[in-house]
């Protein structure tokens, strides 16, 4: 397993992390992801640790906290061997303080996560969404206090826009608070919007990307092909509405190249899709999920090898889309490009 620094922090994380969203799956979204029981969860954690995957990601909203509880049981007796990443901020109830990142909510959320996980500290705690109703100064001060108390080691966010993240970092710097070092983001061959603003911001500010849904919300598993509808077992039938949309022609253009490369390399389509991501700037770790052991072992095969520069270029071309204003000029007009070179233009 390859290991990397998480942003500008001193924390080293594995290139692949494991997403525990399938643990204890319940409800229309998480039930469709999977419903891994306690015995299977421990088996999956065993396989991860044997492969060097030591970071496990979850959240309080995953199956109403059941994911955190099951992950806590699966790592019991080996807490020092793992890194726990969890999130809070999305609604967990109908009460007035059951959503957001106010001081009261954050303290309650962290204490609840610690209890469910059966631990006394969280390695990486991330805000699951931006809370426009709570002053940023209150948020960063509360998180700083929780770090000082030893309940949290490192801080991050998830699904923030560029201005939300930059304003938060500026507030932390001004008030001498702990900074966010991670941004958990959607990034895939069929979803490269991250590159337009958040990637340059991450490079400039030392914020590492923790990538979720690297297979495009289940579209790059190798089971969906041009002229072939998703199989009956695909979770897309139940979850497509919850995830980012993808134009069919754009998807098939990417899938066509992935299939070509699969034949050339002998690697599975999902392995190629994840391997491409691992070479992108700012990417610290890619979260892989699995419903069962076979799926997990296949996903682990995304590391330990690399696509050639020519193969990478083919995927870059197939997956590229014209960026919207104001990002478009930086990639297409010489004058702008000289002042603002694309951080991904020279990758191979």
Automatic annotation (TrEMBL):
<dbReference type="Pfam" id="PF00248">
    <property type="entry name" value="Aldo_ket_red"/>
</dbReference>
<dbReference type="InterPro" id="IPR036812">
    <property type="entry name" value="NAD(P)_OxRdtase_dom_sf"/>
</dbReference>
<protein>
    <submittedName>
        <fullName>Aldo/keto reductase</fullName>
    </submittedName>
</protein>
<keyword id="KW-0560">Oxidoreductase</keyword>
<dbReference type="InterPro" id="IPR050523">
    <property type="entry name" value="AKR_Detox_Biosynth"/>
</dbReference>
<feature type="domain" description="NADP-dependent oxidoreductase">
    <location>
        <begin position="16"/>
        <end position="318"/>
    </location>
</feature>
<dbReference type="InterPro" id="IPR023210">
    <property type="entry name" value="NADP_OxRdtase_dom"/>
</dbReference>
<dbReference type="InterPro" id="IPR018170">
    <property type="entry name" value="Aldo/ket_reductase_CS"/>
</dbReference>
<dbReference type="GO" id="GO:0016491">
    <property type="term" value="F:oxidoreductase activity"/>
</dbReference>
<dbReference type="InterPro" id="IPR020471">
    <property type="entry name" value="AKR"/>
</dbReference>
<dbReference type="GO" id="GO:0005829">
    <property type="term" value="C:cytosol"/>
</dbReference>
């Amino acid at each position: 397993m390859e290991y990397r620094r998480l942003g500008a922090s001193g924390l080293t994380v594995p290139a692949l992390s494991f997403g525990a969203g399938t643990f204890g799956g319940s409800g229309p979204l998480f039930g469709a992801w999977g419903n891994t029981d306690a015995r299977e969860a421990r088996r999956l954690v065993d396989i991860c640790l044997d492969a060097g995957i030591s970071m496990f990601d979850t959240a309080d909203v995953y199956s109403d906290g059941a994911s955190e509880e099951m992950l806590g049981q699966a790592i019991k007796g080996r807490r020092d061997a793992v890194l726990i990443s969890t999130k809070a901020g999305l609604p967990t109830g109908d009460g007035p303080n059951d959503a957001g990142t106010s001081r009261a909510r954050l303290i309650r959320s962290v204490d609840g996560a610690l209890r469910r996980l059966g631990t006394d500290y969280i390695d990486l705690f991330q805000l699951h969404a931006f809370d426009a109703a709570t002053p940023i100064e209150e948020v960063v001060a509360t998180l700083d206090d929780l770090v000082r108390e030893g309940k949290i080691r490192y801080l991050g966010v998830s699904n923030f826009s560029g201005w939300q993240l930059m304003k938060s970092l500026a507030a932390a710097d001004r008030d001498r608070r702990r900074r966010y070092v991670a941004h958990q983001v959607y990034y895939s061959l069929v979803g490269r919007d991250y590159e337009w603003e958040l990637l340059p911001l991450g490079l400039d500010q030392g914020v590492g990307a923790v990538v979720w849904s690297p297979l495009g919300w289940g579209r790059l598993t190798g089971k969906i092909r041009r002229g072939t509808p998703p199989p009956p077992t695909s979770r897309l039938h139940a979850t497509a509405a919850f995830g980012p949309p993808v134009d069919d022609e754009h998807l098939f253009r990417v899938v066509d190249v992935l299939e070509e490369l699969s034949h050339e390399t002998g690697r599975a389509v999902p392995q190629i899709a994840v391997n491409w991501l691992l070479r992108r700037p700012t990417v610290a770790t890619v979260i892989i999920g699995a419903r069962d052991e076979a799926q997990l072992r296949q996903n682990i095969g995304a590391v330990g090898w690399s696509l050639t520069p020519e193969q990478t270029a083919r995927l870059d071309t197939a997956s590229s889309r014209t960026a919207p204003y104001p990002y478009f000029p930086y990639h297409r007009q010489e004058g702008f490009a000289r002042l603002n070179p694309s951080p991904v233009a020279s990758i191979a």
